[in-house]
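Hey,
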Amino acid sequence: MARSADFLPRLGIAMLLLSSALALSSCGNLNKDGMSTGAIPDDYRTRHPIMINEVEHTLDVPIASGDRSLTIGLQDSISGFAQEYRNSSSGVIQIMAPEGSPNSGAAAHARKQIRQLLVARGIPSNRIIETSYHAQANGDAAPIRLSYVATTAVTNQCGEWPEDLQNNTFSNRNYHNFGCATQSNLAAQIANPMDLVTPRAQAPIDAGRRSTVIGQYRTGSDPSSD
């Protein structure tokens, strides 16, 4: 009888500890929305994924009514735009000049110089298309716009706040805009968007250089001095 009396309190304590453990486990795994807090499905990489889309790249070249030639600064900007085009696109590049604006005469003259500069920077002439657009006659000086289309790494638009931050704090979730700036900066730094899809092929092995380096290693000389 003594053993039975001792066994009952021990059994009660064990049951109490088991129920407490189950309650704590339930509280730790689920929040008030029924989602698992151990693996919250709101990763910023899923909410703001980096995608490869077709994007129009543009450059507005300001032309004053009295300009007779492109300045050195404008030539450098156009040359940089041409280099970006050659690295990312094989399509056409458009030169759109304004018509009807106060600077339309100067823009028509500058368009010829821009075409010559693009050709000099390695863009084939058959890929350059010259068009025009209507500008306000009584408005400000309208720019010449250069544009081309290329596949580019992009992400969602940042700065969106669809709900109160207080709601995210209570549910232990990241706010909607969290991580968007990081993803956007990373996408802007990707030189070749195809690197997100597949790795590049390895360069062939330079057998001669390899033999030289191994020989210098064996003799104890410095390979960097070669």
